[in-house]
Each structure stands twice: as C-alpha cells, then as structure tokens.
Amino acid sequence: MCPVSGLFWLSGCNTHQSALAPFGVEADALRSLLVVLLVGAVLLAAGLFWLMRRAVASPEGAITHQQGMRMVLWLGGVFPTILLGGLLIYSLPMMKPAPVGPADLRIRVDAQQFWWRTQYRTAGGPVEGANELRLPVGRTVSLELTAGDVIHSFWVPGLAGKMDMIPGRVTNLVVRAEKPGRYRGVCTEFCGLSHALMAFDVIAMPPAAFDAWLARQAQPPRPVPLTMTPDNPALVGMAAFERYGCGACHTVRGTGLNGTIGPDLTHFGSRLSLGAGILEPTTQNIARFIRHPEATKPGVRMPAFPQMREAEATAIARYLQGLQ
Ligand SMILES: [Cu+2]
Hints:
Bound molecules: copper (II) ion
Strand content: 15-25%
Structural class: alpha+beta
Low-confidence stretches: none
CATH superfamily of the largest domain: Cupredoxins -  blue copper proteins
Number of helices: 7
C-alpha cells in the first residue's frame, strides 16, 4: 500500500521502486525531510498569499514608510534567516553517514555496461554474484561502490539516496534495510545504449535466511547429475556451454570455467531476473537472450550466437537454471 497516495498520485504509487515507500532507514529519513519541506513550503506560500491580499485590499497610506521598511527587515531578512538556519540544523545530521563497525557487512558493487558485479566480503573470502543485492534486515551494511568502464549511478529509491559510481574510485554508501521484501534498484547516470535496461533486484531478508543464503552462495553449485541419460538437457547444455566458449567471459565455480568479463553464473539459477533486472528468467527468455542478447539490450557486451541451434540454446538455459 502506498502511504501517501492521495498526495503523490503522480509517482505511480508502486512499492518496489519508490522513494515514497521506503524500506531502509536512510530513505525513510529522506521522506520525512520531504514532507517537512513540502508542508513548510505550502504554509509559507499561503501566508504570503494572505499578506498580498491584505496589501491589495488596504487603502493607500495604511502603513507608514517606516512600518514598511520594518516589514521588509522582518519578513525579508530575519524570518528567512531563522527558517533556513533551522532547516540546515534539522537536515545536517541526515547527511552524516551512519557509523560502520568492523563487524558490519561490506558489499562491493561494481557497475559495468550494463550490469552489476557484486562481492560480499566474508571471513572466508569474497563471494561473487551479479545483478542482485541481498541485504539482511536490521543490519548495517556498507556498500563500496565503483565502476569498471564509465560513470554509473547507484539508486535503490526505497533504500537510500543516489550515489555515483566512478571508475578508479570507491564511494561508500551505508544502508540499513528495515522491511523484508523484493525491491528494485536502477542505474541513474546515462552510461550507454542500454542504460535504461540496467536494473537489479534488491532482496531484504531476515538475517538467518540471509546467512544461509550467503553460505550457499560461497559454495560451488550443486553438480549436474551425471547418472542421467545422455539426452539429459542439463548435461547437453553443460557440454554446449563449454563448446561455445561461454567460459571465456563467465565463471561457473567448480567447473574450471572462470571468465570475468560477464556476470558470474555460479548460482544463476537462484536469481530472480535475467539480463540485469530486465526479464523473467524463464527457459525461453534465457535461450533467446543467449542467441541474441542485443535484441533485448542494444550495445550489450556479449556476442550473439546466431549459429546456435534453438535446441542447444534451450539445453544451455536448462543447465543454467539448474545452477542453484
Ligand atoms: Cu549504468
């Protein structure tokens, strides 16, 4: 449900990608600030309107020159100074990032044309992922934002404000999710042809479920059952995946394929979307994406495989969906 739907009907009132339906403490503070500013601005405008009407209605010479000058001093000088000073004092604490302790979770998010590389820093070493961000509810998380090619920008409207992602630099964004659920983030800096097709899922989870998920992500995927018949689609797909050289750009841990140009596919089967938050990960969509990624994402950094038979693409899709 949209909490302020009456006022903000223009926003379209979704709850999975909206700064007006926050699930993180930073976005919540920003929304409060917005409401305070909006109410203040309306009151101010109403007051000025009232004064203006009075001035127009009163006869000439109703106030002396000196009274007029005093009014300018108070309404044009003293009042705005107090108002802006108050607002500054009110909003300054919001600009200070929340403190991060050594025990808090750190996640590196590296923006690429047109997808997201993620790296969860754990005691056992970094855990690679892509195109989705999972957060434990109630825990402080420090996001280390950077980019591999051009400037991108990280924005999860329900979580916190925007932050630029700059090649060669790491900027920190400290966040805390408060409500579990599935949300969405986007790139908000024009970064190339498919800039508008560069999104990602944000999944806020209860801490215990998050820990279990992260432990699973650190492991290689469950192996393809080799005991099945040779026409087992996943087995055929795995062979085709190797034969077409997908491993030059993609990593599937535990198989020796460790390319790093494209998204890590180790646990691709557990992801909720395909192509950086763009498509449902159905077998058909995946197969189509593999043969003609540019049909979905113009300017994509993955080559097309038009020579690949549809059955082969479907087999690869089945194999990838099995990577849990
Ligand atoms: Cu981008």
